[in-house]
Design a protein that fits this description.
alpha+beta, 290 residues
Length: 290
């Protein structure tokens, strides 16, 4: 519980930054509208103690698909406050929805998700490790989130909010928001190290996330995620790298704004590795200890 409370600190910092900007949801899409996405990149490598696995492609509803697979998204219900839609990959369809509160929940936990790796792991699943990461994604985002992303690109506010607290070392936290055209693009860079001598944990690394969306309609144009974490978790040597890039057909999300060399703006890292895909990938490979 003590460890979990420590990890809540950066989550609280992000919530505080967002709370003054999000007042209501705002979507503008019509029922029956369809959008086609393509998985441009998806791969993972996971090493934990004596176990290791790697795979290309991605998982959707426990089914494996290759890189290059297309995703069809169809709006089934829509209002200014929420969007219901079907996501179809191959012959598999999942019905889901977006709302203002859900989008904020998604943003908050996406920004800090790699820190949750240190909560402990057990139960290895070799098949899942070799199947590629789970398909991450939101296909609609509350357009009012634009104001929130602007707050998250204020470096002074970030430096004041993300303060080192014992076990958690924030080497770098940065945001960049380009809102100059109808397609808004948010980039996030996050470098942390978590050290706990009691649990024999010394684990951290670099995480980046990029999201592009139509700021007038809330339709997501694409996402790109990267995580490269390594060290020791509960005494086990652990390495996790993943990559996932998904784009609406006809759109190019481009490189990350932040590069690896101290997160130098405009310097593209040669490895792209995603994080929230862990929810469908590594979360299946390794289960949290009770």
């Amino acid at each position: 519980m003590k460890q979990l409370l420590k990890f809540s600190l950066p989550i609280l910092a992000i919530v505080m930054l967002l709370s003054t900007t999000i007042v209501q949801a705002d979507y503008s899409v019509t029922v029956g509208a369809t959008f086609t996405f393509e998985v441009i990149e998806a791969s993972q490598t996971v090493n934990m103690g004596s176990n290791s696995g790697s795979g290309d492609g991605f998982l959707f509803e426990d089914h494996a698909f290759p890189v290059g697979q297309q995703i069809l998204v169809e709006v089934t219900a829509s209002s200014s406050s929420s969007v219901n839609y079907d996501v179809t990959v191959g012959t598999i369809t999942d019905s889901t929805s977006s709302s203002g509160f859900g989008d904020i929940f998604f943003v908050v936990f996406t920004l800090v998700y790699p820190m949750l790796f240190t909560l402990g792991f057990s139960v290895w699943n070799q098949t899942a490790a070799d199947s590629g990461p789970g398909l991450w994604g939101v296909y609609f985002i509350d357009t009012i989130v634009s104001d929130a992303f602007a707050s998250l690109s204020n470096q002074t506010a970030l430096d004041e909010s993300f303060v080192n607290s014992g076990e958690i070392q924030f080497n770098k936290v940065g945001g960049h928001f380009d809102n100059t055209t109808s397609i808004a693009v948010f980039d996030w860079a996050y470098d942390t190290q978590i050290t706990n001598t009691t649990s024999n944990t010394d684990f951290g690394g670099t995480y980046r996330w990029k999201l592009a969306f139509d700021k007038n309609t809330g339709v997501v144009k694409g996402w790109k995620m990267a995580v490269d974490y390594s060290g020791t978790v509960s005494g086990e040597v652990t390495e996790i790298t993943m990559s996932q890039t998904v784009e609406q057909v006809g759109y190019d999300i481009g490189n990350f704004y932040f590069g690896a060399g101290g997160f130098i703006p405009g310097f593209e890292w040669f490895i792209a590795v995603p994080a929230l895909a862990l929810l469908g990938g590594v979360a299946v490979i390794i289960k949290k200890r009770k």
